[in-house]
DNA sequence: TGCTTGCTTGGAGTGCACTCCAAGGCCATA
DNA sequence: TATGGCCTTGGAGTGCACTCCAAGCAAGCA
Protein backbone atom coordinates (compact mmCIF):
# COMPACT_ATOMS: atom_id res chain seq x y z
CA UNK A 1 0.00 0.00 0.00
CA UNK A 2 2.96 2.31 0.40
CA UNK A 3 6.25 2.53 -1.32
CA UNK A 4 7.93 -0.01 0.90
CA UNK A 5 5.87 -2.26 3.09
CA UNK A 6 8.66 -2.53 5.61
CA UNK A 7 8.96 1.19 5.95
CA UNK A 8 6.73 1.82 8.92
CA UNK A 9 8.44 -0.82 11.02
CA UNK A 10 11.86 0.73 10.60
CA UNK A 11 13.33 3.49 12.64
CA UNK A 12 14.76 5.09 9.58
CA UNK A 13 13.18 4.39 6.27
CA UNK A 14 16.35 3.55 4.48
CA UNK A 15 18.48 2.00 7.12
CA UNK A 16 20.81 -0.56 5.51
CA UNK A 17 23.49 -0.82 8.13
CA UNK A 18 26.90 -0.71 6.48
CA UNK A 19 28.87 -1.49 9.62
CA UNK A 20 26.83 -3.98 11.59
CA UNK A 21 30.05 -5.37 12.97
CA UNK A 22 29.42 -4.56 16.60
CA UNK A 23 26.44 -6.83 17.04
CA UNK A 24 26.83 -10.27 18.65
CA UNK A 25 25.08 -13.39 17.31
CA UNK A 26 21.33 -13.19 16.93
CA UNK A 27 20.23 -11.02 19.84
CA UNK A 28 18.71 -7.63 19.36
CA UNK A 29 18.67 -6.16 22.84
CA UNK A 30 21.46 -4.16 24.47
CA UNK A 31 21.81 -2.44 27.81
CA UNK A 32 22.75 1.18 27.94
CA UNK A 33 26.30 0.31 28.94
CA UNK A 34 26.68 -1.94 25.92
CA UNK A 35 25.53 0.90 23.72
CA UNK A 36 28.01 3.16 25.49
CA UNK A 37 30.75 0.70 24.55
CA UNK A 38 29.56 0.50 20.94
CA UNK A 39 29.03 4.15 20.26
CA UNK A 40 31.46 5.96 22.50
CA UNK A 41 28.63 8.16 23.73
CA UNK A 42 28.03 8.40 27.47
CA UNK A 43 24.94 6.98 29.15
CA UNK A 44 24.05 10.54 30.09
CA UNK A 45 24.08 11.54 26.46
CA UNK A 46 21.99 8.54 25.39
CA UNK A 47 19.33 9.36 27.96
CA UNK A 48 19.49 13.01 27.00
CA UNK A 49 19.01 12.14 23.30
CA UNK A 50 15.88 10.28 24.33
CA UNK A 51 14.56 13.14 26.41
CA UNK A 52 14.89 15.67 23.61
CA UNK A 53 13.17 13.41 21.10
CA UNK A 54 16.20 12.45 19.07
CA UNK A 55 15.57 8.74 19.62
CA UNK A 56 12.62 6.56 18.67
CA UNK A 57 10.85 4.86 21.54
CA UNK A 58 13.36 2.61 23.28
CA UNK A 59 12.19 -0.75 24.62
CA UNK A 60 12.33 -1.39 28.35
CA UNK A 61 13.04 -4.54 30.36
CA UNK A 62 10.46 -5.71 32.93
CA UNK A 63 12.39 -3.66 35.49
CA UNK A 64 12.24 -0.51 33.41
CA UNK A 65 15.78 -0.55 32.06
CA UNK A 66 16.46 0.51 28.51
CA UNK A 67 16.95 -2.22 25.93
CA UNK A 68 18.35 -0.91 22.66
CA UNK A 69 17.77 -2.75 19.38
CA UNK A 70 19.99 -3.08 16.33
CA UNK A 71 17.74 -0.54 14.69
CA UNK A 72 18.45 1.88 17.51
CA UNK A 73 22.17 1.33 16.99
CA UNK A 74 21.80 2.05 13.28
CA UNK A 75 19.99 5.23 14.11
CA UNK A 76 22.73 6.25 16.53
CA UNK A 77 25.19 5.55 13.77
CA UNK A 78 23.44 8.01 11.51
CA UNK A 79 23.14 10.55 14.30
CA UNK A 80 26.86 10.25 14.92
CA UNK A 81 27.61 10.91 11.27
CA UNK A 82 25.27 13.88 11.10
CA UNK A 83 26.80 15.24 14.28
CA UNK A 84 30.21 15.18 12.62
CA UNK A 85 28.89 17.40 9.88
CA UNK A 86 28.11 20.06 12.45
CA UNK A 87 24.37 19.65 12.00
CA UNK A 88 22.62 21.11 15.05
CA UNK A 89 20.92 18.60 17.32
CA UNK A 90 17.64 20.47 16.82
CA UNK A 91 17.75 19.66 13.09
CA UNK A 92 18.38 16.02 13.84
CA UNK A 93 15.40 16.06 16.18
CA UNK A 94 13.38 17.51 13.32
CA UNK A 95 14.48 14.65 11.08
CA UNK A 96 13.59 12.14 13.81
CA UNK A 97 10.13 13.68 14.06
CA UNK A 98 9.65 13.35 10.31
CA UNK A 99 10.56 9.69 10.51
CA UNK A 100 8.06 9.19 13.32
CA UNK A 101 5.34 10.98 11.38
CA UNK A 102 5.40 8.37 8.63
CA UNK A 103 5.64 8.04 4.89
CA UNK A 104 3.99 11.32 3.99
CA UNK A 105 7.10 13.16 5.14
CA UNK A 106 9.33 11.55 2.52
CA UNK A 107 9.65 14.73 0.49
CA UNK A 108 10.55 16.83 3.48
CA UNK A 109 13.13 14.28 4.61
CA UNK A 110 14.56 14.22 1.12
CA UNK A 111 14.95 17.98 1.16
CA UNK A 112 16.50 18.01 4.59
CA UNK A 113 19.06 15.43 3.49
CA UNK A 114 19.76 17.33 0.28
CA UNK A 115 20.43 20.50 2.23
CA UNK A 116 22.69 18.62 4.58
CA UNK A 117 24.52 17.08 1.66
CA UNK A 118 25.20 20.50 0.20
CA UNK A 119 26.45 21.68 3.59
CA UNK A 120 28.79 18.73 3.81
CA UNK A 121 30.17 19.40 0.35
CA UNK A 122 30.92 22.99 1.17
CA UNK A 123 32.49 22.01 4.47
CA UNK A 124 34.77 19.61 2.62
CA UNK A 125 35.70 22.40 0.22
CA UNK A 126 36.45 24.73 3.14
CA UNK A 127 38.60 22.13 4.79
CA UNK A 128 40.54 21.50 1.62
CA UNK A 129 41.12 25.21 1.35
CA UNK A 130 42.40 25.24 4.91
CA UNK A 131 44.56 22.23 4.17
CA UNK A 132 46.26 24.15 1.38
CA UNK A 133 47.02 26.99 3.80
CA UNK A 134 48.37 24.58 6.39
CA UNK A 135 50.53 22.84 3.81
CA UNK A 136 52.01 26.14 2.76
CA UNK A 137 52.78 27.08 6.33
CA UNK A 138 54.11 23.67 7.19
CA UNK A 139 56.53 23.63 4.30
CA UNK A 140 57.65 27.10 5.32
CA UNK A 141 58.42 25.90 8.82
CA UNK A 142 60.08 22.75 7.54
CA UNK A 143 62.37 24.83 5.36
CA UNK A 144 63.01 27.34 8.12
CA UNK A 145 63.91 24.45 10.40
CA UNK A 146 66.39 23.06 7.88
CA UNK A 147 67.93 26.48 7.33
CA UNK A 148 68.23 26.95 11.07
CA UNK A 149 69.96 23.58 11.47
CA UNK A 150 72.46 24.28 8.68
CA UNK A 151 73.15 27.69 10.18
CA UNK A 152 73.94 26.08 13.50
CA UNK A 153 76.21 23.59 11.73
CA UNK A 154 78.03 26.07 9.52
CA UNK B 1 70.87 36.79 11.66
CA UNK B 2 67.91 34.47 11.77
CA UNK B 3 66.30 32.37 9.16
CA UNK B 4 64.30 35.19 7.68
CA UNK B 5 65.12 38.72 8.52
CA UNK B 6 61.55 39.84 8.07
CA UNK B 7 60.27 37.22 10.45
CA UNK B 8 60.17 39.15 13.67
CA UNK B 9 58.25 42.01 12.15
CA UNK B 10 55.43 39.82 10.93
CA UNK B 11 52.46 38.69 12.93
CA UNK B 12 52.71 35.23 11.51
CA UNK B 13 56.05 34.07 10.26
CA UNK B 14 54.79 32.74 6.99
CA UNK B 15 51.96 35.08 6.15
CA UNK B 16 51.84 35.40 2.33
CA UNK B 17 48.25 36.58 1.94
CA UNK B 18 46.56 34.61 -0.81
CA UNK B 19 43.41 36.71 -0.85
CA UNK B 20 44.43 40.27 -0.24
CA UNK B 21 41.45 41.38 -2.32
CA UNK B 22 39.61 43.26 0.41
CA UNK B 23 42.24 45.91 0.97
CA UNK B 24 41.85 49.38 -0.59
CA UNK B 25 44.76 51.24 -2.21
CA UNK B 26 47.84 51.71 -0.10
CA UNK B 27 46.50 52.24 3.41
CA UNK B 28 47.10 49.83 6.21
CA UNK B 29 44.74 50.96 8.95
CA UNK B 30 41.14 49.85 9.40
CA UNK B 31 38.51 50.61 12.00
CA UNK B 32 36.81 47.80 13.80
CA UNK B 33 33.69 48.21 11.70
CA UNK B 34 35.71 47.85 8.51
CA UNK B 35 37.18 44.65 9.85
CA UNK B 36 33.68 43.51 10.74
CA UNK B 37 32.70 44.08 7.11
CA UNK B 38 35.77 42.22 5.82
CA UNK B 39 35.69 39.23 8.10
CA UNK B 40 32.04 38.72 8.96
CA UNK B 41 32.99 38.58 12.63
CA UNK B 42 31.22 40.90 15.04
CA UNK B 43 32.99 43.78 16.80
CA UNK B 44 32.24 41.95 20.05
CA UNK B 45 34.11 38.92 18.81
CA UNK B 46 37.07 40.96 17.58
CA UNK B 47 37.42 42.62 20.96
CA UNK B 48 36.99 39.30 22.70
CA UNK B 49 39.73 37.71 20.54
CA UNK B 50 42.01 40.48 21.70
CA UNK B 51 41.12 40.03 25.35
CA UNK B 52 41.88 36.32 25.32
CA UNK B 53 45.23 36.81 23.61
CA UNK B 54 44.29 35.49 20.19
CA UNK B 55 45.37 38.72 18.49
CA UNK B 56 48.73 40.42 18.37
CA UNK B 57 48.87 43.93 19.79
CA UNK B 58 46.45 46.08 17.81
CA UNK B 59 47.40 49.68 17.05
CA UNK B 60 45.26 52.48 18.47
CA UNK B 61 44.32 55.87 17.07
CA UNK B 62 45.10 58.99 19.11
CA UNK B 63 41.63 58.64 20.63
CA UNK B 64 42.22 55.07 21.64
CA UNK B 65 40.25 53.36 18.88
CA UNK B 66 41.52 50.17 17.33
CA UNK B 67 43.32 50.42 14.01
CA UNK B 68 43.82 47.06 12.35
CA UNK B 69 46.64 46.49 9.85
CA UNK B 70 46.77 44.25 6.79
CA UNK B 71 48.84 41.88 8.87
CA UNK B 72 46.05 41.72 11.41
CA UNK B 73 43.61 40.91 8.64
CA UNK B 74 45.88 38.13 7.42
CA UNK B 75 46.01 36.74 10.90
CA UNK B 76 42.22 36.87 11.18
CA UNK B 77 42.10 35.04 7.89
CA UNK B 78 44.17 32.23 9.32
CA UNK B 79 42.16 32.20 12.51
CA UNK B 80 38.98 31.91 10.47
CA UNK B 81 40.36 28.93 8.61
CA UNK B 82 41.53 27.21 11.75
CA UNK B 83 38.16 27.86 13.33
CA UNK B 84 36.50 26.02 10.46
CA UNK B 85 38.59 22.98 11.23
CA UNK B 86 37.03 22.83 14.68
CA UNK B 87 40.29 23.76 16.38
CA UNK B 88 39.52 25.05 19.88
CA UNK B 89 40.14 28.73 20.45
CA UNK B 90 42.52 27.83 23.28
CA UNK B 91 44.78 26.03 20.80
CA UNK B 92 44.77 29.03 18.51
CA UNK B 93 45.70 31.20 21.46
CA UNK B 94 48.58 28.82 22.09
CA UNK B 95 49.75 29.25 18.50
CA UNK B 96 49.44 33.03 18.83
CA UNK B 97 51.62 32.88 21.95
CA UNK B 98 54.24 30.87 20.10
CA UNK B 99 54.31 33.47 17.35
CA UNK B 100 54.75 36.23 19.93
CA UNK B 101 57.54 34.34 21.64
CA UNK B 102 59.73 34.52 18.55
CA UNK B 103 61.80 32.32 16.30
CA UNK B 104 62.82 29.76 18.86
CA UNK B 105 59.28 28.36 18.82
CA UNK B 106 59.46 27.35 15.16
CA UNK B 107 59.61 23.66 15.94
CA UNK B 108 56.67 23.80 18.28
CA UNK B 109 54.64 25.75 15.75
CA UNK B 110 55.57 23.25 13.09
CA UNK B 111 54.33 20.41 15.26
CA UNK B 112 51.11 22.19 16.13
CA UNK B 113 50.41 22.77 12.45
CA UNK B 114 51.26 19.18 11.60
CA UNK B 115 48.84 17.92 14.20
CA UNK B 116 46.18 20.25 12.91
CA UNK B 117 46.83 19.08 9.38
CA UNK B 118 46.31 15.48 10.39
CA UNK B 119 43.08 16.46 12.15
CA UNK B 120 41.86 18.21 9.04
CA UNK B 121 42.64 15.20 6.90
CA UNK B 122 40.70 12.89 9.16
CA UNK B 123 37.80 15.31 9.32
CA UNK B 124 37.69 15.35 5.54
CA UNK B 125 37.67 11.57 5.54
CA UNK B 126 34.83 11.51 8.08
CA UNK B 127 32.84 13.96 6.02
CA UNK B 128 33.34 11.94 2.88
CA UNK B 129 32.12 8.89 4.76
CA UNK B 130 29.07 10.82 5.86
CA UNK B 131 28.56 12.03 2.33
CA UNK B 132 28.39 8.43 1.13
CA UNK B 133 25.70 7.68 3.71
CA UNK B 134 23.74 10.77 2.73
CA UNK B 135 23.98 9.89 -0.95
CA UNK B 136 22.64 6.44 -0.25
CA UNK B 137 19.72 7.83 1.71
CA UNK B 138 19.02 10.55 -0.78
CA UNK B 139 18.85 8.14 -3.68
CA UNK B 140 16.54 5.96 -1.62
CA UNK B 141 14.19 8.87 -1.06
CA UNK B 142 14.43 9.98 -4.67
CA UNK B 143 13.43 6.50 -5.78
CA UNK B 144 10.71 6.27 -3.17
CA UNK B 145 9.37 9.59 -4.39
CA UNK B 146 9.28 8.40 -8.00
CA UNK B 147 7.56 5.15 -7.00
CA UNK B 148 5.02 7.10 -4.98
CA UNK B 149 4.27 9.37 -7.94
CA UNK B 150 3.81 6.48 -10.36
CA UNK B 151 1.56 4.77 -7.84
CA UNK B 152 -0.61 7.85 -7.62
CA UNK B 153 -0.71 7.99 -11.43
CA UNK B 154 -1.40 4.31 -12.08
C1' DT C 1 24.47 73.24 21.76
C1' DG C 2 22.53 69.23 21.30
C1' DC C 3 21.98 65.00 18.51
C1' DT C 4 23.72 61.00 16.23
C1' DT C 5 27.08 57.71 15.19
C1' DG C 6 30.84 55.01 16.31
C1' DC C 7 33.82 53.62 19.38
C1' DT C 8 35.57 52.28 24.34
C1' DT C 9 35.43 49.21 28.77
C1' DG C 10 34.52 45.29 32.31
C1' DG C 11 31.40 42.27 33.37
C1' DA C 12 27.24 39.74 32.86
C1' DG C 13 24.26 36.85 29.90
C1' DT C 14 23.15 33.33 26.16
C1' DG C 15 22.72 28.97 23.59
C1' DC C 16 24.37 24.69 22.64
C1' DA C 17 25.56 20.13 23.79
C1' DC C 18 26.36 17.81 26.94
C1' DT C 19 27.58 16.34 31.99
C1' DC C 20 26.74 15.48 36.52
C1' DC C 21 24.16 14.79 40.89
C1' DA C 22 21.26 12.89 44.52
C1' DA C 23 18.21 9.58 45.71
C1' DG C 24 16.66 5.37 44.91
C1' DG C 25 15.28 0.40 42.55
C1' DC C 26 16.75 -4.28 41.23
C1' DC C 27 19.54 -8.23 41.49
C1' DA C 28 23.68 -11.38 41.86
C1' DT C 29 27.21 -13.04 44.70
C1' DA C 30 29.49 -13.70 49.49
C1' DT D 1 21.49 -10.15 54.77
C1' DA D 2 24.50 -7.05 52.99
C1' DT D 3 27.60 -5.30 49.61
C1' DG D 4 28.47 -3.86 45.01
C1' DG D 5 27.22 -2.97 40.43
C1' DC D 6 24.18 -1.31 37.10
C1' DC D 7 20.29 1.01 36.23
C1' DT D 8 16.45 4.80 36.89
C1' DT D 9 14.73 9.91 37.26
C1' DG D 10 14.34 15.26 37.13
C1' DG D 11 16.85 18.92 37.58
C1' DA D 12 21.01 21.47 38.13
C1' DG D 13 25.75 22.46 36.51
C1' DT D 14 29.63 22.94 33.02
C1' DG D 15 32.51 24.62 29.21
C1' DC D 16 32.86 26.73 25.04
C1' DA D 17 32.38 30.52 22.04
C1' DC D 18 30.52 34.02 21.73
C1' DT D 19 26.98 38.01 22.64
C1' DC D 20 25.20 41.68 24.91
C1' DC D 21 24.82 45.55 28.21
C1' DA D 22 25.43 49.97 30.54
C1' DA D 23 28.00 53.84 30.93
C1' DG D 24 30.75 56.86 28.79
C1' DC D 25 34.03 59.37 25.40
C1' DA D 26 35.05 61.68 20.79
C1' DA D 27 33.88 63.42 16.27
C1' DG D 28 30.76 65.24 12.78
C1' DC D 29 27.02 67.99 11.89
C1' DA D 30 22.14 70.95 12.12
TrEMBL record, chains A, B:
Region (Disordered) residue spans: 1-27
Coiled coil regions, renumbered to chain: none
Gene3D superfamilies recorded: 1.10.1660.10
Keyword annotations from UniProtKB, A to Z: DNA-binding
SUPFAM superfamilies hit by this protein: Putative DNA-binding domain
Membrane-spanning ranges: none
Biased composition (Polar residues): 1-12
Entry superkingdom: Bacteria
UniProt-listed PANTHER family: HTH-TYPE TRANSCRIPTIONAL REGULATOR ADHR, REDOX-CYCLING DRUG-SENSING TRANSCRIPTIONAL ACTIVATOR SOXR
Protein name: MerR family transcriptional regulator
Organism name: Streptomyces pseudovenezuelae
Lineage, uppermost ranks: Bacteria, Bacillati, Actinomycetota, Actinomycetes, Kitasatosporales
Amino acid sequence: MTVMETTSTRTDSCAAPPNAHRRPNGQDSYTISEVVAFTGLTAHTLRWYERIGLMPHIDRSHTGQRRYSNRDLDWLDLVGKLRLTGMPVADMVRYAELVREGDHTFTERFELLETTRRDVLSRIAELQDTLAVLDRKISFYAEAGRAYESEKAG
